[in-house]
Structures are given as C-alpha cells and as structure tokens.
Predict the structure.
Amino acid sequence: MSTGFYFGITYSSGRDLVQEAIDYAVALAAERGLMCYDPPVPHSALGHRGDVPYETPITLKRKRPGRRRLNYEVGIKPRPFIQECPMIKIFGYLKRKPGLSPQEFADYYEHNHVPLVLSKAFMPIVYKRNYIQRGDAFNIEGDEISFDCMTELVFADRDDLSAWMAGLGGDEIARDEENFIDRAATRAYVVDERTTAN
C-alpha cells in the first residue's frame, strides 16, 4: 500500500519559503501518523531551472515499533501551501518614453534600471519584466494596449513590500525612470492570484 501527496514550490521562492513548505509537509504527515527519517532531496539533485516547479520527495515511516520501513512520497499541492503564505503580488504597467523604440525601452530597462533597483533594495521573491510583442499575430492591437511592459513583483508579505520600497528611496529611481518611462502613464495594482491545479 502506498500513500502520497505532492507539493510544488519554485526555486525562486527563496530558501526560507522552501524550508517553510517542507516544514508544512512534515507537519501534515505527522498529523497522519507518519514521521520523517530522511531529509528531502537537495536542490542540486533536482535539476531545477529557475522558476520551473519541482517536486521534493520526503521519505517517511509509520510511528510504530518494528524494523519494517515504508517509503511514502509526501508533498502538498501548491494551493494549500499558497493559502498559508500571505504573499503580495503586484503588476506594474509601464509605457515607454516617446521617441524610444520598444527594443531601446527594453534594453534600457534591463541593462540600466534593473541593476540600479537591485543596488538599492533586496531582490523580491519574483521580479519579472514582460514586454508586449508588438505585431504578434495573437495580439489584438489597438489604442487600448497602453503599456509596453508588465512588471511582476512578489513579496513574502506587506512588510517586505514596505521595506523594499523604503530601500529604493525615491529621487534617484524616479530620475532614472524619466530616461525611458512615461511616468504619467504608469499604473500598478495588487492582485489576488488563483491557480488551477491538475
């Protein structure tokens, strides 16, 4: 007889969140009469690639005397874990400065502004820039596409978000944004992510 669950986490979640997920899995297993006797597989053995989810197997045995060992693959699907973490996700919609091409806008953002941001404040759990691909056949072009990049930021909680913003300061970041962003058109929203599991 085998019993199992899976939990998926991403390497980009950071060491603390990974450990929290593992602790949560072990706690759930304990409630079901199981206990860990082997540590999880180390990250280096899992062949992770950036944000590609991986499954962390945890080997367990029943809480009863005897020499028989049963291996159980234990984990928790992403949804229960996400519900335990009050993460904050923000989408920022940025429009390029008039006179810049989409490529010039992206190049400046990646090679100038991102390094400046990271020199001022800590790395968020997720920091992604998603650039609109103008002219793609799948896109519905029109004036309603009023931005050139959707920036995605994820923080562990609102306190981390506040600390990150405080670390950025203001004047130097704002001056650099004026070099490539139409700041009057910038919009940012906190979102509530919902995930569909298989």
